[in-house]
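This section describes the prediction task in plain terms. A model, or a person checking by hand, is given the sequence of a single protein chain and must write out its three-dimensional structure as a string of tokens. No templates, partner chains or ligands are provided. The sample shown here is typical of the held-out split.
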Amino acid sequence: MIVNLVSKKQESIFWKLHLTWWVIYIAYRTLPTCKLPEGSATTIIFFYVLNFSSMVILTYIYRVFYLKVDLDSQEKYWQFLSLLIGVIICGSIFFLINSHGFIYHYKLWEHQKITTEMRFDYLLECIWNAFPWFLGFHLFRYGHILKERESNLLQSLHDSELDRLRKQLNPHFLFNALNGIRALVLIEPHSAREAIAQLSDLLRLSLKTKLDENIQLSEEIEILENYLSIEKIRFHERLNVEINIPNELRYYKVMPFCLQILAENAIKHGIGQQKKGGIIRILGDKTATHLQLKVMNEGTLENKSNSLDESTGIGIENLQKRLKINFGEKAYFKLEEQNFMVTASLGFPLEN
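The expected answer:
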């Protein structure tokens, strides 16, 4: 069916424009009244109903053929040729369907002779009357092609950027994890072995997670918990974690590694800088429009005079770029400090 080939929105727009154009055409042919053909009211109504219905049906059939053959993907030569052939064929069929009525069109009496020249003039008029619809249809399709190409190009650029960010994040993530385990190898080999086992689970999760696809919050929490289990082995009692995210929120979609990056940042720039360690709190709630996630840790922003990217490094910068690509202005990220407490906040639109 034709509805399967185009979106419902496009189908609705087509029918509105399609019927509007042919109503305008009939109105143009009818008004002023001097353009009315000769004959009774029934004859006149029948003539214009036949005009209207034949043009609506013929041009719709052309559209069905055009989309099924997928002429949008052909060279401009074929598109121009299809326009030319289509308008001639439709105009000719329109002429054949209505040819019995052109005596009224020319206001001739039935006993007068209809010449070949008159027939040819009427054929040209039928073709000319069909031409504006065909021109408008092809201009509309050409605009659609340009818009689709632009959309595909933007999507390709987004995919390329996400792939670059993924390649950037994976080594960064692995380096930081191994760097943490390295310190344990000589002094606490048993803890190091346990941390390596946890790292293997974390790598397994990271390998099956695609950065260009959002995941459920429950999956992100699983990644986060695996990461924090490694850090707890390294920090022992210096690191405490509280996760307070209601179960009903865990089915919403978020970007992969968003909480893991924020927790890593909190440990590196917050807990890791405190001799006695500290606590990390991961909170979640929602508003009417957004899912809100917060990672809080004791400490201060390292350098308030620096920009956000300069003070937090690759992970946060990577996160911000992915937010921009995936959600534009609909999502947000904030990093704030108040009363010796740093809060990293993420907001994802519920509609995603």
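For orientation: The radius of gyration is 34 Å.
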